[in-house]
Write a structure and sequence with these properties.
Distance between the termini: 36 Å
CATH superfamily: Aldolase class I
CATH class: Alpha Beta
Structural class: alpha/beta
Oligomer: single chain
CATH topology: TIM Barrel
Shape: globular
Strand content: 15-25%
Number of domains: 1
Bound molecules: ligand PBG
């Protein structure tokens, strides 16, 4: 008889046949950095995650480095916003200051910046508004200015999240023309218009003041379109392709893994984090085991890289083993 249970008998045989593993090497930890002083604000819907100002963030970074987490993904929260999000290309803006500070104080830590406008615009959308909608082509030159400014500050990699058509080609050209040919692009290639971003929008103060993001982020009903999005970004020169959110989109992660010869990343977003934290706090689930199982499912689906608010916790669990 075929007995699949033979290979499950003991932990050691299970170890030998185990197909997928979550490791610290897979993790990117997001950080929210707010302009100002003495800020260390708990984000209520994301227990354990805080907004820091640059003068309070060192202990968080010390911990990230001590846990051997390879990379951080930075989100800036500026003190002033305007219609175009012009603070995004201010060489002394919060993101640029943060990059310079982290690269100087923690040179080995790999620093990635989120390239977007929604935290920086007065209306909370990811670009310039014309006729009540984001104007794709008018936004592209501003994306170029923003990445050049991040590059000059010393960023290791940029991660555009605005879902503008042509953004990857624009960024590659801007970086190449200014001598930053070695800075890779991790594209939020397949990003859905998702309710799972709720807690993040509080954390980053980036909720749109009118309408929603459905004219630029993808419809959660669509799968084939994900391949089309990823194909364009692949052709335009994205180095890493990301799927976001992760848990409700494992099919898309697998599609990308099967179809592209590029590293695949996924973003385990704020709502996914909040749900596990809330259920665990109520004693309804074993938070640690559900965390590990969820992240493992992303690896099994085909993710090479996982961006997660759980990164520190996961690293602690893994380093105990
Ligand atoms: C946009 C951006 C968003 C997230 C990352 N980058 C939010 C959005 O599109 O509204 C969401 C991350 C999360 O929910 O954890 N700059």
């Amino acid at each position: 008889m075929n007995r699949t249970r033979r290979l499950r008998k003991t932990e050691n045989i299970r170890r030998l046949v185990r197909e997928n593993k979550l490791t610290i090497d897979d993790l990117i930890y997001p950080l929210f950095i707010e302009e100002g002083e003495n800020i260390e604000t708990e984000i209520v819907s994301m227990p354990g995650i805080k907004r820091f100002s640059l003068d309070t963030i060192s202990k968080e970074l010390d911990e990230v480095v001590a846990l051997d987490i390879p990379a951080v993904l930075l989100f800036g929260i500026p003190s002033k916003k305007d219609a175009t999000g012009s603070e995004t290309w201010n060489d002394d803006g919060i993101m640029q200051q943060a990059v310079r500070f982290i690269k100087k104080s923690y040179p080995s830590l790999y620093v990635i910046t989120d390239v977007c406008f929604c935290e920086y615009t007065s209306h909370g959308h990811c670009g310039i508004i014309h006729d009540n909608d984001v104007d794709n082509d008018a936004t592209l030159p501003n994306i170029a200015k923003q990445v050049i400014s991040h590059a000059k500050a010393g960023v290791d990699m940029v991660a555009p999240s605005g879902m503008m058509d042509g953004m990857i080609a624009t960024i590659r050209e801007a970086l190449d023309n200014t001598g930053f040919t070695n800075i890779p692009i991790m594209s939020y290639a397949v990003k859905y218009s998702s309710a799972f971003y709720g807690p993040f929008r509080d954390a980053a103060d980036s909720a749109p003041t009118f309408g929603d993001r459905r004219t630029y982020q993808m419809d959660p009903s669509n799968r084939d379109e994900g391949l089309r999005e990823a194909t364009f970004d692949d052709q335009e020169g994205a180095d890493i392709l990301m799927v976001k959110p992760a848990l409700s989109y494992l099919d898309i992660i697998r599609d990308l893994k099967n179809n592209f010869d590029r590293p695949i990343a996924c973003y385990n977003v704020s709502g996914e984090y909040a749900m596990i934290k809330a259920a665990a706090a109520n004693g309804w689930i074993d938070g640690e085991r559900v965390m590990m199982e969820s992240l493992l499912s992303m690896k099994r689906a085909g993710a090479d890289i996982i961006i997660t608010y759980f990164a520190k916790e996961v690293a602690k669990v893994l380093s105990k083993k």
